[in-house]
Amino acid sequence: MGTTRFGGEEAATMMAELRGTFSTGKTRSYEWRVAQLRSIVKMLDEREGEIVEALRSDLNKPEFESVVYEVAMLKSSCKGAIKELKQWMKPENVKTPILALPSSAEIVAEPLGVVLVISAWNYPILLSLDPVVGAIAAGNAVVLKPSEISRATSSLLAKYVEQYMDSSAVRIVEGAIPETSALLEQKWDKIFYTGNSKVARIVMTAAAKHLTPVALELGGKSPVIVDSDVNLKIAVRRIIAGKWGCNNGQACISPDYVITTKDFASNLIDTLKQELERFYGAEPLKSNDLSRIVNSNHFDRLMKLLNEDKVGGKVVYGGQFDKSQLKMAPTLLLDVPQDSLIMSEEIFGPLLPLVTVEQLHESFDIITRRPKPLAAYLFTNRKSLKDKFVRTVSAGGLLINDTAIHLAVQTLPFGGVEESGMGSYHGKFSFDAFSHKKAVLYRSFIGDAAVRYPPYTRTKMGLLQALMGGSILGILRALIAALFGSSGKPKTA
Amino acid sequence: MVEERDSSCLLSELRETFKSGRTRSFEWRKTQLEAMLNMLTHQEHSCFQALDHDLGKTHVESYKDEAETRLLFYPAKAEVIPEPYGLVLIITSWNYPLQLALEPLIGAIAAGNVVVIKPSEIAPATSSFLSKTIPLYLDSTAIKVIEGGSDTTQQLLQHQWDKIFYTGSPRVGKIIMTEAAKHLTPVTLELGGKCPMIFDFPSISSDLKIDMLKRTVRRFYGENLETLKGMTRIVNKFHFDRLRGLLKDPLVANSIVHGGSYDEERLYLKKIVESIEFINSKPKPLALYAFTNDESLKTRIVSETSSGSVTFNDVLIHCLCDGLPFGGVGPSGIGRYHGKYSFETFSHEKAVLRRGFFPDLNARYPPWNTFKLEFCRVGYRFDYIALILLLLGLKSFPKES
Predict the structure, then answer these.
(1) A117, A136, A201, A419: least CB-packed within 10 angstroms?
(2) Looking at A70, A174, A252, A346, which residue is catalytic?
(3) Could you tell me which residue ranges the Aldehyde dehydrogenase domain spans (chain B) (predicted)?
């Protein structure tokens, strides 16, 4: 890619161009939006091979994950939007109260204007373009800033997005901190950020200067509670699929740590070992089905978690690594100290600590003591435990008897709470995230009630109170009072 | 002014209350809202009854949203469950000091939160009323009023809140959002802006319009300042001076055609189209009003301008329509409330997906191969025929690369 500097001036110029495009009204038309969404699908169809290559280069991501979790999910999101867009764009009729009659009201969805999407490195195709799908569906002009850490994918997006889509309204800006800062100085109508909570604070602070609304998709420590009363083999497979099967644990909704009873722990660990070997072989560093660690910074970070005093000795499986290739094997740890780094920070890697308790209900305290995560998981057949889990645990989303897949259900909002984020998207929620829902009230000139206007009198007030109270008796009483006065005697002329 | 120590204590108490789970029960919420109703009835402000009535009916149980789930995940049950954020801060404005404090409070309680209200110090009588009266009617271990000025607000903002609801000016809105960003606290900001009003009276001279306005104003409010009835005073000297300053501006002074003791700005444009352009050149307002019977103009206004809301042929009344969200866009605000939107603005919508253990599809699990890849690809497309053919070995798939 070229070395043209992208600073404040370039950002301002680009913003002016995009605002110009938006003000022509082009992006509002249904046809334009559908055409853009179709061109994303076309790009994914025609460039799939290159996308898989770029993801291999950036993350050593297995082809299966690239095709199923990035490309197919994205295509499905586009197609869903294309199918539902007409419905989403329709105004929603709303009832009006007796006081406002005669009138009609509706809620009209309109685009916010020019929006910024800042994406992450772990699912660089999905997390870049899925929010863009929402932005376009809602009729906005959009700038996408892919993560510089996933360099090959960033280049691919820069090369193809403006080629396939309408570059007068959709732009890619590559770069790192300086470029992102230049972008954040501009006044956006919405900023959609996927990443970590530290940078999220910087994004929201920059947004506050312009009163720009934000959506922040962050992460957290997603716990998994495993009850003894389960089909263990299937539970374990699903945990593995959600953890190491998702970018080798580098996913915002990856199971971060497991809680189970002391009695059940050895069963669970044995089954985990068994299935891990079945999936990745006896030498997992040689498996083609595991992503590598994205870069040496993150590799060192994970090694630090592993080598902390009183933690390293708790490894019960795995622990192999190869720094030169940035590879790390699935690793299980048992009962590390609660105040260790690995139990305080989001792991975002192939290490899985298991915490044991006497009774399973103790797990709730362990979870609620920590910041609210993006996801929380429970494996059980017991209804009482399911109910307690849903009632007690607050997270972006909860999943019972599986991991990770809830983000594929487009009818569920996907987003966090507190440290794990704000706002949500997927399906119609994406459309809503990038729309302003404008209230529109149509009044007629007929039926103008003098009761509203000054000079204000007690009688008028009484009648208004009754009308707003909505009780027929109250209205009648007030009307009588108006005609006859509160004494009950008819008023004299 | 509240001592730093005191506010920390107060907030700890509130967090303890929230943790106990008491505010989450339907009974507690109903009791509080009923108590608020009593409070308002005894204090003769029963115009809030309608709003309270609506919100009290809000369903606090989970509302189910049966989702269409894909073959790979079938059977599964999906739902969205609203839950309270926790500790909520409501900072109110002075112009409708009672309503702007209590209406968000209703939403916060209905959603099951614990609350601190910081009423505006510029309306001291109302602030004092709230501070004295609320503890008499509502659960004071869950709902507290903290009085004070901007120092108090600054101090409160240093703490971690789970949600902040602010009504007031854009300038202060930015300060609040900046402080909220430090804790990633979600905010609802109900701000303001210049609400434009479009009059479309075809081929009526501008003089006639003014005469009508003058006559109506005289009828409502009386002839001169001394006998002015039914009009609110300007709230304090700061704002009075500010408004007087606006009037003194020579450009504005020349366009005053009536009175001079209140601020009016009228602009006459030859074509109505210019008014749309003019409005769009200014920051997006909280409300836009248009008086017209022209249907195509109405359509143009709705689709070509942006504002928190649009009302045709009336003003302000959209605030009373609980089915309509009330909130701004751009500099006029973030978020919305009224009616069920009040409940939603103080709730986190938690996604919940439940699965059974069967069926469990092998295709998800490594080691991956081309068959499994094709299976998932096809499954995503809901291409059930292809799926069956694949399973029966009758469908070919791309060779292993």
Answers:
(1) A201
(2) A252
(3) 76-199, 270-352
